[in-house]
Design goal:
Layout lengths: L2 H13 L2 H8 L3 H15 L4 E2 L8 E2 L1 H27 L6 E4 L2 E5 H4 L14
Antiparallel strand pairs: 1-2, 3-4
Helix pairs in contact: 1-2, 1-3, 1-4, 2-3
Length: about 120
């Protein structure tokens, strides 16, 4: 499960149809369907009622149970982005040379990226 899977889940909920969700995400409807099926396989349950003749997609009972987890995922992602943005981590240049993994400028210089609420180096 990744952010793309969750973005796809939210798009289907928001737009109500696979076609509209796919258009909003700038992907094809088959790609969106594949993403939803992969998410459902990972979750182990069908999340949406869908099929021929169904105009508006709705959550299954399992989808309703998954919804609070999806909200938590979204909340944690936003919290992470806000926290990283406050520390400037998202705005640090990244350096890479050949096959060497990239590191941000403070890490490359041996400096702290930031500190947490307790003052410990991150």
């Amino acid at each position: 499960m990744n952010n793309t899977d969750m973005e796809t889940f939210w798009a289907v909920l928001e737009h109500g149809t696979l076609t509209a969700a796919a258009e909003a995400l700038f992907i094809t409807q088959p790609t969106l369907t594949n993403r939803i099926q992969a998410l459902e396989a990972e979750v182990g349950a069908q999340l949406f009622h869908r099929g021929k003749g169904i105009r508006h997609i709705e959550l299954t009972e399992a989808g309703q149970r998954f919804l609070p987890l999806a909200y938590r995922w979204q909340s944690l992602l936003e919290e992470t982005r806000v926290s990283a943005d406050r520390r400037g981590v998202l705005h640090q240049p990244v350096y890479s040379s050949g096959g060497i993994p990239a590191v941000s400028a403070p890490e490359a210089a041996g400096g702290a990226v930031g500190t947490d609420a307790a003052g410990d180096r991150l």
